[in-house]
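in:
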């Protein structure tokens, strides 16, 4: 399955990257290489570009480029971030 086929909110692991050498090198520089975990965040209304999250960064890539990235969907979906709560020691209501 390729990255452009994943629905929004799906986690996956990159298996391989195909395409021109310059394209593969650019993805490597961005940290998208085999074994990397990615998550599809958004897809533009016409399917291009696709926003993904990987290693704490958000990237937008063309749909054609996403079609050259082979992934394995993850069975465990990441939960939405929970709000941060702070507790102050010794604080009284």
């Amino acid at each position: 399955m390729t990255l452009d086929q994943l629905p929004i909110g799906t986690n996956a692991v990159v298996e391989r990257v195909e395409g021109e050498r310059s394209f593969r090198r650019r993805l490597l520089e961005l940290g998208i290489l085999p074994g990397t975990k990615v998550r599809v965040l958004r897809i533009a209304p016409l399917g291009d570009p696709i926003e993904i999250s990987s290693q704490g960064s958000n990237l937008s890539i063309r749909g054609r480029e996403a079609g050259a990235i082979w992934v394995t969907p993850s069975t465990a979906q990441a939960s939405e971030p929970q709000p941060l709560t702070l507790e102050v020691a010794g604080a009284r209501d």
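note: Residues 3-73 form a domain with the SH3 type barrels. fold (CATH 2.30.30.90).
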